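BUG: 3D viewer hangs when loading the predicted structure for this chain

Environment: internal workstation, default settings.
Expected: structure renders.
Actual: progress bar stalls at 90%.

Input used:
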Amino acid sequence: MNDHPTRKTLPRLDESLLTHLPPFSRLEKRQIRTILDQATSRRYEAGVAVFREGHPADRFYMLLDGYVRVVRITATGEQVTALHIPAGQLLGIARAIGRDTYPATAMTATESIVLSWPTRLWDTFVAEYDGFATETYKTVGHRVGEMNTRIVELATQQVEQRVANALLRLINQTGRKVEGGIEIDFPITRHDLSELTATTLHTVSRLLSGWEKRGLVLSKRKRITVCDPHALVVLGQG
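Structure tokens produced before the viewer hung:
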């Protein structure tokens, strides 16, 4: 994994970049200008660690463009993808859950543009910027809910259901309409999908190959397109 992000300073960012994003949508233009003037903006290549599990949480982040994989490392050293974060969301918000270290690693799934601020500004943002705290804790709640859903799936669902539901979540979060269906809008391999569903690579490959023959999905060159979402819903329900 590459630990050397491209650290180009981007041009002075316009306030309009944040006005539509929920943590900042209630703020006045002058407040957003102040926030941007305190931010560091960086462009990261794909496959770069924005921050790493266990490291001091000295900054928090806003993903402006791209996609990020949240990765955990097991006790045996295996890498497991816990969830994906699309553009427009905060990440590295360890302070929101009372931690001073990052609980996971954030790896860029595509080239990404990220804003960040020193964690010492967190309390100021929460106290002074209307909506920042509310939206931040909504984000935390949503991610906890997603993880709980996955735990329940692991305990109660067959492999085919888990993989179908994982694909449905991904197209709901990041899907874009293309000819023939809805494509997951970042590179995702069968290995990535096996990590997301606690399934072997062999099983995921067998399922996707079978679904391709039935016209449900199309999988090629690290891209997966869902051609028949309703059929996956049926499979996901068992």
